[in-house]
């Protein structure tokens, strides 16, 4: 009998390698595969499912919006679209303008084009960065293995070591259009820069008339315990007001929606005809995002993100085979004594937990904000046996 994996391999492009599971349904922070086996989802669709799976509020918002008005073109406006833009700006606490997209890469494409409207072309980016897979966002992504097969990429991108303010100072000059950084590097394995880094980046960019662009595709929408990570006093010292912020992932809680937000004057750099999208910010996507924002506010999920994050970090750090735990809130990176993260992912799956390997010795946890204490405790209890089964040796 042909399996789903065989049918997948025969019908889908092999961009992701063989799927680890064929999933059938989800509820809260739990998913079930086609054979009915249950897993605690500690990855949340890679930091996307902020409200977990099948959250009643999200389901109702999408259902109601689709029954009312599902899609219109951007020749027309919709109430959810405008309301969402206002809410995202209110969370930033500043005036600005929003361009909605369907993904993080598209939000970054929009922002990349926006930087060109300064009349300058150079973008200074951090090594270890991940900004997406389209040609523009790939040009801003540092990993050679992703870039090389597709070169030449759009140019005038300069890479500097992440978290190094002196390197930024040396690289940024009056020809720089923008400095682009992630407040925490997610794909690199949850790498946290010094607390002074973002404020330094802001000062350096502004000293040269350049824009500060923060990619909060992974860190935004509450993931670190504040709505935007650059507002998190645990991560950032001083006040940072980025000129551009890009969002996606958690924003729609699983419905594809992203945003390129530009504050102050940079919000007015695009003129009619400069950029566009058919689907970006459609009423259903915007209604989904509003449901996520409402749930975060009304169910006090940011406080839960902080509590759950602490519980998880303390729990996994208790095993001596974990050499470092990084991150705040529910964006957590773990380093192992040995490069066995792929084995740990497999062993965790066997034990009923979904986790993610970012590098051979690094794991990432980015679970839904609706994870329960019992879910965390179950994972922490299973953790030593998972490491045993993966063959990670005690130091
Ligand atoms: C920081 C960051 N930017 C951009 C992207 C790309 O987003 P998408 O996969 O939605 O295009 C990602 C995805 O992992 C990301 O983590």
Question: How would you sum up this structure in a few lines?
Answer:
N(2)-acetyl-L-ornithine binds at residues 133, 277. By secondary structure, this protein is of the alpha/beta class. It has helices at residues 4-11, 44-47, 56-68, 79-92, 104-116, 135-139, 144-147, 165-171, 197-207, 283-298, 301-317, 341-350, 373-389, and strands spanning 23-27, 30-33, 38-41, 96-101, 122-126, 157-160, 176-181, 211-215, 244-247, 258-263, 322-326, 332-336, 353-354, 356-359, 362-365.
Q: What would CATH call the architecture of the largest domain?
A: 3-Layer(aba) Sandwich
What sort of overall outline do the alpha carbons produce when their principal axes are compared? globular
Ranges where pLDDT stays below 50 over 5 or more residues in a row are none
The CATH topology of the largest domain corresponds to Aspartate Aminotransferase, domain 2
Task: Give the SSE string.
Answer: HEEEHHHEHEHHEHEHEEEHHEEHEEEH
What's the CATH superfamily of the largest domain, by name?
Type I PLP-dependent aspartate aminotransferase-like (Major domain)
What small molecules are bound in this structure?
Answer: pyridoxal-5'-phosphate
Helicity level:
25-40%
């Amino acid at each position: 009998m042909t399996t789903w994996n065989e049918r997948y391999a025969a019908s889908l492009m092999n961009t992701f390698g063989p799927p680890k599971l064929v999933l059938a349904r989800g509820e809260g922070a739990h998913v079930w595969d086609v054979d009915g086996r249950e897993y605690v989802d500690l990855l949340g669709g890679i930091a996307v499912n902020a409200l977990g799976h099948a959250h009643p509020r999200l389901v109702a918002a999408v259902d109601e919006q689709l029954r009312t008005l599902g899609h219109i073109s951007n020749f027309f406006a919709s109430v959810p679209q405008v309301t969402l833009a206002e809410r995202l700006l209110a969370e930033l606490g500043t005036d600005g303008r929003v361009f909605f997209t369907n993904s993080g890469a598209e939000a970054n494409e929009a922002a990349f084009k926006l930087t060109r409207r300064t009349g300058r072309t150079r973008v200074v980016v951090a090594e270890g960065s991940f900004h997406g897979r389209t040609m523009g966002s790939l040009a801003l992504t540092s990993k050679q293995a992703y870039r090389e097969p597709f070169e030449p990429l759009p140019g005038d991108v300069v890479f500097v070591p992440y978290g190094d303010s002196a390197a930024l100072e040396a690289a940024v000059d009056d020809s720089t259009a923008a400095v682009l950084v992630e407040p925490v590097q997610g794909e690199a394995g949850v790498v946290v820069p010094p607390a002074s880094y973002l404020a330094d980046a802001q000062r350096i960019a502004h000293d040269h008339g350049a824009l500060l662009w923060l990619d909060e595709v992974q860190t935004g929408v509450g993931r670190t315990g504040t709505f935007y990570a650059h507002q998190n006093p645990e991560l950032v010292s001083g006040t940072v007001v980025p000129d551009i912020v890009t969002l996606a992932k958690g924003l729609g809680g699983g419905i594809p929606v992203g945003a390129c937000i530009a504050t102050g004057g940079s919000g007015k750099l695009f003129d009619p005809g400069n950029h566009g999208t058919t689907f970006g910010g459609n009423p259903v996507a915007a209604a989904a995002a509003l449901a996520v924002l409402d749930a975060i506010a009304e169910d006090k999920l940011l406080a839960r993100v902080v509590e759950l994050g602490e519980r998880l970090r303390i729990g996994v750090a208790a095993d001596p085979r974990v050499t470092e735990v990084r991150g705040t809130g529910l964006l957590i990176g773990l380093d192992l004594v040995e490069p066995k993260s792929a084995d740990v992912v497999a062993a965790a799956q066997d034990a009923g937990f979904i986790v993610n390997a970012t590098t051979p010795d690094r794991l990432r946890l980015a679970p839904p904000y609706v994870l329960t204490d019992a879910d965390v405790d179950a994972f922490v209890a299973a953790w030593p046996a998972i490491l045993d089964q993966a063959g990670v040796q005690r130091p």
